[in-house]
Amino acid sequence: MRRRRPALLVGLALFAHGCGDPGPPAGPATLGIEVRAASEERGTVVEALEEDGPAARAGLEPGDLVVALDGVPMADSCGFGRALGERAPGDKVVLAWRRGRERREATVELAAALDLYGAACEKGRVASCHRLGTAHLGGGMETDFARAAEIFEKACDAGSAGACADLGMQALHGTGIALDTARARNLFRRGCDGGSAVGCTRLGFLYATGTGVAMDDDRAFSLFRQACDGADAAGCYNFALHFADARGTFANPSLAVATYERACALGSFLACTNAGYQHQNGLGTQADLRRAVTYYRRACSGTACEPGDPMGCFNLGVMLRDGLGVAQDKAEAATFFTAGCDGGNASGCANLADLLAAGDGVPRDETRAAELFRRACEGGHERSCRFRESLPAETP
Model pTM? Predict the structure, then answer.
């Protein structure tokens, strides 16, 4: 059983502009809200609103939990974005949300993103300018990195911390503007100092990996803590890694598992895998195999916008194969080994091959097993390489 390797993760911003097919010239349909993952329940949390937007006119406020669109439950921010992406400006939708224990509902006419944000940006609303730039990054329309960068730069200079963080990402990767790591670092710093949790995560990533700066775990740790305090999933994941690996701080398994759990709740599937590993092995908490299974399932599940963690799928397969914290089911284990293998996890390929070669819980298929051992070997799984060498040569 394996923990997700301690790879650092740099997060990306999420906006509710949809991710469907390209829309009309006025841009994709929008409710005029920014959303984030709900940490404790299904749904998506309203983080900010366009004051003249459809959602604001319907009475939504920051902190409200959007639970359904046209009667369809919204499990997460991804599903919400995709649902909007399937609609056009002018469409009317029934939006349901919760404020505390009170459920509310309203029929709302969707706006055109470029029209809504463009008009607000011209009035000097820097947050609207940031949303306008984000719409040009492909949220339901043709991507225009250069135009997005132009808008982000103006918004950043006018005080939008999020725009600084997103422009920094373009500078880091050279998309729409010249690749410039030093400029990216400065922009991430401006974003972080201005209150962008994502900006803090991205700046922390530079210091944790030594990208364009001297590696500095102490500074990275402090920045990831600040990002996690701001509810950024990637920031929390990286913050937990530093506790787990004693980077920039002392080793603290208890804080590591608590922070992995928070990052998982915020949407980091890598964190879900590591939380499961901690619970399975009693690291920083009492061993709890059933809880480990729950976290591995969440890690493997993914969303329509983001695949799950292949390591989480592999670990869940092992639990099912061996009956750890769950009823033994080798056929179901094979489905999760398949998911892990398809995601690039060599151990998933090898363990699926074992079941197929022996006909253990699944129909025996030596040909497919041999192909999976080959894939596992190419992925660095040494036992599969040795096993592959023992197989008879293929007939031309």
Answer: 0.85
